[in-house]
């Protein structure tokens, strides 16, 4: 034995690695993921008691981060945030620019995608039982940033911020986490058959 260690990169770390290509593929994946989250943001329901709408964005962020890995997933959410602030109307209800009370969630999307992608690169997206904790961890990070931002923006305490920015959304986001946790291992099984 020579004592040298050879790293094998034959196995894909995340779903995006299954696709052939490098830089062009990565750019297309990042732009597509940002657009996907922007499209899901248009699935928006406003509640009378909170400035934060219910949207489909969370599902998009969970899938983008996990399927792309932490670098591409983070890049996609940074692109989503920066392009939206610069004027692309793909925040909830075709909004753009600084969206005030709910902007903390957009910042949280970046960290959520990074964490989900990092966990996926360690195999957390290969089974439902491993995917659930990974996507729930991402949502916890997103809520941590979003609810904290909301509390400061509205000048309210933690309990009120939770009532406005977490409690009304937790059931829907649990469903989105479940969908993502089912889709990811399913995609791996389909890819394995290919």
Short description:
With 194 residues, the chain is mainly α. The protein is built from six helices and two strands.
Primary descriptors:
single chain; 194 residues; mainly alpha; Arp2/3 complex 21 kDa subunit ARPC3; two-stranded antiparallel ribbon; 6 helices; globular; disordered N terminus
Task: Write structural notes for this entry.
The protein has a single domain (15-193), classed as Arp2/3 complex 21 kDa subunit ARPC3, CATH 1.10.1760. Strands 1-2 form a two-stranded antiparallel sheet. A hairpin with an 8-residue loop joins strand 1 and strand 2. It contains six helices and two strands, in the order αββααααα. The protein starts with 22 loop residues before the first helix and ends with a helix. It is globular. It has 194 residues and is mainly alpha-helical. 41% of the residues are buried.
